[in-house]
Amino acid sequence: MAIQDVLVPDLGNFSDVAVIELLVKPGERVSVDTPLLTLETEKATMDVPAPVAGVIQQLHVAVGGRVSAGSLVATILADATTPAASATAAPPRAIPAPAAAPAVAAPPPATVPVVMPAGAPRGVLPPINEAGFASAHASPSVRLFARELGVDLARVRGSGNKGRITQEDVKAFVKSVMTGAVAAAASPALPKVPVVDFAQFGPVEIKPLSRIQKISGPRLQASWINLPHITQFENADITELEETRKSLKARAEAEGVKLTPLAFILRACVKALQQHPRFNASLDAAGENLVFKKYCHLGFAADTPNGLMVPVIRDADRKDVFALARALAELSDKARKGKLAGAEMQGGCFTVSSLGGIGGTAFTPIINAPEVAILGVSKSAFQPVYRDGAFVPRLMLPLSLSYDHRVIDGAEGARFITSLSQALADVPALLEPVA
After folding, report:
1. Tell me: the pLDDT tens digits for 204-225?
2. Is residue 350 within 8 Å of 279, Cβ to Cβ?
3. Residues ≥6 apart with Cβ < 8 Å to 402
């Protein structure tokens, strides 16, 4: 056995090239032409192959390092039967490199989402799209590995540097397909937002996102990308509701609660959900079944100094408007003080986002997945409404209902928001005792 140094081969006009991936470890056995590491120039990605068979004794470079032609990258304890080889590795195989994208944190390979065509059978790899395969961000060795397994790289999201696809990502893709644990996800071919140095245009100040924003942001983005949103608009007449609410102010104060319009809206949502149970359901992980919930936990968006939070009122169907008002006050206070427990923000079936106290006439709320719908509430205003041959002033409340079109179609969405509007107009029913 002999010691064999592996040097970087001729790179043409390139020098000081980045090492972006190490494909082997010390102690690992390799064969002739086994890829050892991947380099990336401005125009190409290339593997440096092993010139001999043997065991990796030492790696002399690390990811993020830079090398040039002739740089020592590895030492191999060569097998005695291996023919003598040049100290310089064979010329690397290169492929064009896609435009560089900003480095982003990626999930571990085991949780890398997989993009599958609609109706693809479980356990069957989809056919390779050659155009997408050619443009995928992967090294030659990973491309060869994917070809051997029949994996379309265009459907695999990379977890490596700059979104590069690794062998582990390819393995995770195959495992997801074979087990049926395939999650809908955004295609890695989605265009990237341009990276801009804003300071070149004038003074700037950089402030980090709050912890809540860092957590909720990716979840909202995932919901927007993965759920086909439809938003339905309606104006609900709450003239009698508001008159009744004001008349109950003394009773509410006696019970130690502040009776807000939102308490009535939540009570009306309960009634609408009971009439339309599909809105109180969720898709299962496979996306093949609906899970109908026999409970009704309502989330509501709470504006806090640290960002938006969504506390959940459990068993809202068992609470009257006064109990709902009390739960709203208690959970809102906890949210503002940062004292909400994790369990108090979980298990929601349907969410209400009310901006009525701030303003606005309508908006398109993002569904709080895995829920299938969310209600947006804007600022009420008096409007002329034609009734019995004349225009009369009525207090109208703008409602914006967003729902998952995979679960709910337009007709069902219209029926729900109509039921909700009717429930808001039927104030005596909203005040009925809860069994």
Report:
1. 999 988 878 888 888 898 899 8
2. yes
3. 229, 230, 231, 232, 364, 365, 366, 367, 373, 374, 376
Contacts of 215 (CB under 8 A, 6+ apart): none
Q: What is the pTM of this model?
A: 0.59
Q: Any idea how long the chain is?
A: 435
- Taking each helix axis from N to C end, the angle separating 321-337 and 261-275, rounded to the nearest 10 degrees, works out to 110
Q: How far is Cα 281 from Cα 103, in angstroms, rounded to an integer?
A: 37
Q: What average pLDDT does this structure show over 179-196?
A: 62
Catalytic residue list contains 405: yes
Alpha-carbon distance of 332 to 328, in angstroms, equals 6
Point out which residues pair with 56 in neighbouring strands: 76
Catalytic position from the list 60, 137, 229, 405: 405
Distance from the Cα of residue 308 to its chain's centroid: 17
Task: Label residue 201 by pLDDT band (50, 70, 90).
Answer: very high
Q: What is the C-alpha separation between 21 and 138, in angstroms, rounded?
A: 11
- At residue 142, φ and ψ (nearest 5 deg) are -70, -35
Burial label, 389 (beta-carbon count in 10 A; 0-12, 13-18, 19+): exposed
Tokens matching residue 146: 């994917």
Q: Amino acid identity of 394? A: R
Residue 322 · residue 252 · CB < 8 Å: yes
The token pair at 114 is 């997989």
The answer to whether 99 and 162 have CB atoms below 8 angstroms apart is: no
In 3D space, the residue among 380, 366, 377, 395 whose CA is nearest the CA of residue 265 turns out to be 377
